Amino acid sequence: MGYWIVQTMNGISFGMVLFVIAAGLSLIFGLMRIVNLAHGCFYALGAYLAIAILQWTGSYFLSMVAGPCGVAILGMIMQRFFLHRFPKKPLSQILLTLGFVFILEDLALLIWGGEHREIPKPPLFAGVLEIGDMSFPTYRLIIIATGILLAIGLWLFQEKTIMGATVRASVDDPEMAGGLGINVPALFTLIFCLGSLLSAFGGAMGGLLTGIYPGAEWEVLLLAMAVLILGGLGSLKGAFLASLFVGLVDNFGRVLIPNLALFTVFAPVALVLAFKQTGFFGK
Amino acid sequence: MIQVDLLEKSGFKKAVPYFLIMGVSALLILTFSSPGSASESTPPIKIGVLYPLVGLHAYLGKAQVEGVKLFFEKKGYKIADRDIQLIIEDTEGNPDTGLMKARKLIEKDKVHILLGIVVSSVAYAVRDTVHSNRTPLLITMANAAGMTRDRRSPYIFRSYQADGTAMYYASQYVHEKMGSRKAIFSGPDYAYGHENAEAFRKGFQKSGGEVLKEIFVPLGTKDFGPYLTLISQFGGKADTLAFVYGGSDSIKFVKGLDEYRVKDKFRVLINLGATGPGTQLKEEGKAALGIYSIDMVYSNLNSPVTKEFLALVKEKYGYYDFNHHWGYLGAEVVGRALEQIRGNIEQKDKFLEALRNVRFESINGPFEFDHQGQNAIVNFYILRNEMVGGQVDQVLVDVLPKRRDPWWLDQQW
Amino acid sequence: MRWWVGKLCVLLLFIILPHAVGTYYVSLAIKMLIFAIFAMSLNLLVGYMDLPSLGHAAFFGVAAYAVAILSKNGVESVWLNLMLGIGMAGVVAAIFGLLALRTRGSYFFMITLALAEVLWGVAYRWRYFTGGDDGIPGIARPDLGFIGWSLGDATIYFYFVFFFFTIAYILISTFMHSIFGHIVVGIRENELRMRSLGYNTWLYQYVLFIISGLFAGLAGSLSAYFNGFVSPADLSVRVSAEGFLMVLFGGAGSLLGPAIGAGSIVLLKNMISAFTARWLLILGMIYVFVVMFAPQGVLGIISKLRLRNGPKHQLALGRQHL
């Protein structure tokens, strides 16, 4: 019994990390329809910066906050000076962001080397929870809690604040919103920054869970895209549910049917794309 | 009629300053990166060095290149009064690229010797080209078992294990000396994991043990949590956990062993390649404590050659990783063979003969080649991770002297 | 008139090439040609149909594996292997097309990626059949049979590949200039109108999708013989992404653009990486530069500089749908 509980919690904790990244992508791709292949690189940078800041200052708080902020600035530069020129041109966006991926990947290799790096667990959460005869690491519980809190926070922002309404209006009808005096370009840059920040924060969290290494940026991007497809673009609730789904399905799929490991995630994705493009939970 | 889109007219003028910036930065990058060491007037001995320098194997390639350079620097880039020129190429860890670079080194640069290769598929990819061009190749890490077995060639040597060797001997050791009777094996779900699982199983069964389950972690697994939980389940039934992992997987797995308290559930944990000195032990920290490993490298080997080497690495590069060994060792093997023939690399048959007969006390212990298959015959060390002077380090438990690829012992393999 | 002369010069250049440079450069040229075919096939989707595919390597790789498995199991004839390889690619394209063509724009992008990933996973796991991550090495290049020339010779193989490149180019060019091609472009510009005119738009797209797969299969088969091995890398996202880059870099709005893009990128990669380990960084910067200042690709730059007379075949990139 303990075994199944622990496996479920494994899936949920992984799903929560996915949710943070997917939420970021949902803002950028789901809401603004910008293809940003460098989204995974922001994740990676979030993790690398977290390690660097931790080494520098010893403060976990700073590493989880300042790092993502730094990446948000990078996101701003990318959007403001490069991406904004190609508002409805996915091909150009793909080529542009792919170029950035190469640049960022190589810079990361140059600065941090290609070895796998771990973010050391905060001593406060380094223990385990005993469930039956199985052990479950405590820090994963914190990750689950963080994910849920963030989900609630984002939902409140989107549904209950004026800012959230402004964002939704601007995306639905930018001309109208501009006519009402909303600075739409600045708003879009802000949303892009927020999306990048979320991805980087996901990186800091993910760094605790799985460490950071070359190639992580692509793994994460593919999974985040899968989550968005299953959950429906632009739907926060969809992203949350789909993240849990992917986390659990991937988890159990890998353990129960290891032969079909890649299928468990990509088969549903292909089917959804072919038959119900708005996703399982989308509108 | 088909319309032709109007092309941006002003875009190009705007491009000029950006173009200048890019051009200048490209020039700067080119100026400050070195393609290899320069040579002098007499025709130098050209050694092509093939390693992955980008991608997930980059950290292996980088350290091994450093090891190679360290050896030749020690020799002043000269052997028997002849200059040595290293031409380093990036395989990207990709067989297509690896083959293209090998062709470049052999056909365009006309290298006399090829050295390196980490990724098995790259090794298999270049095999035919190396063989048909009669270029001696010394593989310093790729496990690709076939290269010194069914796909061997008189021109191909390897200064590392053929896949499965270490785990074969490890399985027999844990049975005979540590009382293991029932084991679980875990590894990545591709050739490396499967070949080592097979070798462990063969050796263990031969000794009388039983492998209860083999748990392979599929490709692209980010989160090892589920597998560690799965392995924990067998804690009551098996007394031993044997595993092989490299790179990122190894650190995730070992940390997970600690996080999920798997170490408490097995009496013996033994691995190949997952708790190596350097980056791995550093990142794993206390999680690696108490775990045994089998390896061809022992960084604390009580030999003046090893100690000198370690000091040199730390002095020159400021850090140390077990991958430095493999580059240095390969370079030394080639260097000694060249010395033997007084640098006359043009006499290829003599060089091959010299290479085959290389025999010396290397930084890893005694070294020689198995004349069948041309794989290295070296010591295998049984090590245990313990706290030494406040840090996690490897401690020597036992030595398995001069072991050869078991495939040649028992060709029912 | 003038550009015919230009093309003839280029043709002559290719014919004397293997006799003018060393075998390594001939190999490099072969690789450039193989990817030129691949890029041209991808352009049928990207440029002519506005369908950004990130799974094109699936067809390339399947053909390569088919050739590998067949030739290692006794099928000696290179012609038969090529045909069967191309055929396999076509079959896979037929299956993928059924699923993928239900989507457009970014969804299409993602579903092609997902399908290709699944195929790659199969190649990686099905070790018994595909050799797993070690791949299938040792594919020999046979003799051409009736002529007795050995394809094992780099020069002969170069002409062999060049022959197929020319055929591919002529076929694609003819096809896209026929009524079929005009209809397809019409569908890209305004699908609704084409449908209201009575055309079965889906069928045209499906047929072109399969044709695109067939040519990618040609490239893949030639690649298997060129390398002498296949591995899951031939099916990877990396190859698909590179193909994509080649199309956009050279210019998606024309027939030769992608071919030029392919040649340029293969050349650039090999040249830059010989000088510095930072070649990825430089390549990335080049891509960013091209997107920012040469949205029509390299061919666009050349046209702008009026080095080529207005090519008759230049087709617009069209609106880039999401």
What does this structure look like?
The complex is a heterotrimer of chains A (283), B (413) and C (322). Helix content of chain A is 75%, strand content 3%. By secondary structure, chain A is mainly alpha-helical. Chain A has one domain (17-215). A two-stranded antiparallel sheet of chain A has the order 1-2. In chain A, strand 1 and strand 2 form a beta hairpin. In chain A, helix 5 packs across helix 6. The two termini of chain A are 37 Å apart. Chain B is of the alpha/beta class. Chain B has two domains: 45-161 and 303-374, Response regulator (Rossmann fold); 165-295 and 380-408, Response regulator (Rossmann fold, 3-Layer(aba) Sandwich). In chain B, helix 8 links the parallel strand 9 (240-244) and strand 10 (268-272). The radius of gyration of chain B is 23 Å and the shape is globular. Chain C has a single domain (22-321), classed as Orthogonal Bundle (ABC transporter involved in vitamin B12 uptake, BtuC). Chain C has helices at residues 2-20, 23-49, 57-72, 78-100, 105-125, 127-130, 154-177, 179-189, 191-196, 201-227, 237-250, 257-275, 279-293, 297-304. The chains are: A mainly alpha (283), B alpha/beta (413), C mainly alpha (322).
Quickly list its features.
heterotrimer; A: 283 residues; mainly alpha; two-stranded antiparallel sheet; globular; B: 413 residues; alpha/beta; Rossmann fold; 2 domains; nine-stranded mixed β-sheet; six-stranded mixed β-sheet
What gap, in angstroms, lies between the N and C termini of chain A? 37 Å
Assign a percent range to the helix content of chain B: 40-55%
Task: Specify the biggest β-sheet of chain A.
Answer: 2 strands, antiparallel
CATH homologous superfamily placement of the largest domain in chain B: Response regulator
Number of helices of chain A: 11
Helix content of chain A: over 70%
Our count of domains of chain A comes out at 1
Please trace the helix and strand order of chain B, writing H or E for each element.
HEHEEHEHEEHEHEHEHEHEHHHEEEE
The fraction of residues assigned to DSSP E strands of chain B is 15-25%
Structural class given helices, strands, pairing of chain B? Answer: alpha/beta
Radius of gyration of chain B: 23 Å
Largest interface: B-C, 49 and 57 residues
Strand content of the residues of chain A, in percent? under 5%
Oligomer: heterotrimer
Poorly predicted runs of chain B are 1-15, 31-40
Distance between the termini of chain B: 69 Å
Q: Structural class of the secondary elements of chain A?
A: mainly alpha
Q: What is the CATH architecture descriptor of the largest domain in chain B?
A: 3-Layer(aba) Sandwich
Please give the count of helices of chain B.
Answer: 12
